[in-house]
From TrEMBL:
Record EC number: 3.1.3.12
Name of the featured protein: Trehalose 6-phosphate phosphatase
Record keywords, A-Z: Hydrolase, Magnesium, Metal-binding
Reactions mediated catalytically: alpha,alpha-trehalose 6-phosphate + H2O = alpha,alpha-trehalose + phosphate
Cofactor(s) needed by this chain: Mg(2+)
Biochemical pathway: Glycan biosynthesis; trehalose biosynthesis
Purpose: Removes the phosphate from trehalose 6-phosphate to produce free trehalose.
Record organism: Tsukamurella asaccharolytica
InterPro entries tied to this protein: HAD-like_sf, HAD_sf, OTSB-like, Trehalose_PPase
GO molecular-function terms, A-Z: metal ion binding; trehalose-phosphatase activity
Family statement drawn from the similarity comment of this UniProt entry: Belongs to the trehalose phosphatase family.
Top-level division of the source organism's lineage: Bacteria
Length: 257
């Protein structure tokens, strides 16, 4: 699959740098969006391309996801050569960015209970518990017109509690008791690896924080979404996971050359 000319040129320049960080969201990029979040497995060939990239000199590859690290690892099957950062950038191999105190654990329980009560009133809605909070999924709400109402209830209820941080996504509202940022995660990874440039692909609202920090010469930001009407801070755009895989494969070929 051929990539847009401007993106292909940017990839060629990126591939020629001595040290680079290749990072990506998981859902909607590595794995196609599916009705059941527990069944979101990688597009065939994508993880293999990322693993090959991670084996090349001067390349660090990272998955930066809203999933908790355990679920991310289980669904993706990512090898140990890939860095995995969960909970929207707050959960690392060594633990969370901040301490989850007793008060925060109690607040998380309150958030879970509040979202569960909302989900019960909207058939098809689902609550996904997470280490720092929970996500309310409305993609499968039986009455599609009711999905925005469920999200609105969540924003007025659990999301409005002091100390709760809300993040909107595609047909989902995620609530956390610690502030999270994929952008901050990319900055940390850049510092840790000494990367001359960073490439990041993402499909959701949460990825805009990551795109916003990619302002250094050579950085490559790619929105994975076929709709040009969807606003983004990313410099480039591709349609979906198949194109994302092509980006990784093209970068692998360029880096090997």
């Amino acid at each position: 699959m051929s990539l847009p000319t401007d993106l292909a040129q940017a990839l060629a320049q990126f591939a020629g740098l001595p040290t680079v960080l290749v990072a990506t969201d998981y859902d909607g990029v590595v794995a196609p969006i599916v009705a059941d979040p527990a069944a979101a497995f990688p597009l065939p060939g994508t993880v293999a391309a990322l693993e090959s990239l991670a084996g090349l000199p001067g390349v660090t590859v990272a998955l930066v996801s809203g999933r908790d690290r355990a679920t991310l690892g289980r669904l993706s099957g990512a090898p140990s050569s890939l860095v995995t950062v969960g909970s929207h950038g707050a959960e690392w191999a060594e633990g969370f960015e901040g301490a989850l105190t007793a008060d925060l654990r109690e607040l998380r329980s309150t958030v879970l209970a509040g979202l569960a009560a909302i989900a019960e009133r909207f058939p098809g809605a689902a609550v996904e518990p997470k280490p720092l909070g929970a996500a309310l999924h409305v993609r499968n709400v039986v009455d599609p017109s009711a999905a925005p109402l469920a999200l609105a209830e969540a924003r007025r209820g659990p999301a409005a509690l002091p100390g709760v941080h809300a993040t909107d996504g595609k047909a989902v509202l995620e609530l956390a008791v610690l502030e999270t940022s994929k952008g901050r995660a990319l900055q940390t990874l850049r510092e840790r690896t000494g990367a001359a440039a960073v490439l990041y692909l993402g499909d959701d609202v949460t990825d805009e924080k990551a795109f916003a920090v990619l302002d250094s010469p050579g950085d490559v930001s790619i929105k994975v979404d076929p709709d040009p009407a969807v606003a983004t801070a990313a410099r480039f755009r591709v349609d979906g996971p198949v194109d994302a895989r092509s980006v990784f494969e093209e970068l692998r070929a360029l880096r090997r050359a």
